[in-house]
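Dear colleagues,

As part of the handover before I leave the project, I'm documenting each prediction I ran so the next person doesn't have to rerun anything. This entry is a single chain, and its sequence is reproduced below.
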Amino acid sequence: MISAPDCLPHIDATPAVPSWPIPSIVLTDVDDTLTWEGRLPLPALDALYRLEAAGIDVILVTGACAGWCDQMARLWPVAAVIGENGAFVIERQGRHLHYHDTQSSQARTQHQQRLYQVARGIMARFPELQLAQDQCYRRYDLALDHGQEVEAVPDATVEQALALFHEAGIQATASSIHINAWIGEFSKPEAALRWLAQRYGLSQEHAKTRCAYLGDSRNDAAMFRQFPNSIGVANIRPYLAQLEVPPAQITQAPGGYGFAEWVNHLLPPQAG
């Protein structure tokens, strides 16, 4: 396992650091991109506040459940949270939150019934997979734990479970800790582009030049493809061979320490 360094090094010179303008919006994954070993490191939280102070909006793009997304939108210095792999956006408006949904409550209830039906069959076949502990806080998707609270499940098992969801006509992807499954035509890049257009008036092409994206795993592939100004934290290295479009930069430090490393490169700390 990669451990956090005592200090934050400069961005890795391989691949070479592109000469990008400072982005006006930073999109970032959460688990193992902002966090590390299940916690939010102090340097990552400080980096979020430094981005806010610099006038750079941070939008979290995550598979995390609605309960966690609500907490992050309320307590962290972020402009919005795109949750459950693009199902909704939680926008912070002063001290209040506003939810932007993609499906009605009735549709979500029907979809949850179908998701549980398929997931029960998968868990019967692979008992090492378990419902995520935060499942009760989810509004759209169903999450199977393959490495958060359970012993790490082999990649082959994760791939077979994904295939079974797909065969049932259900969208599914794997993060570093969960298999997320959902019914509906939404995804992280679609939700991000829709929100950037709705909230900031950015076209798809302008979004490519105005935004940066940070991620850590193979389920970030679609976002790396959509946003050329992309950064992988160090723990993405085992997945590089599986990515059609790798991130343009890779940090030396993992998780939230890598996030802070990149922000230090973007906004060098002032001496003294």
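The radius of gyration is 18 Å. Helices lie at 42-53, 66-75, 105-125, 155-167, 188-200, 204-210, 221-226, 255-266.

All the best with the project,
I.
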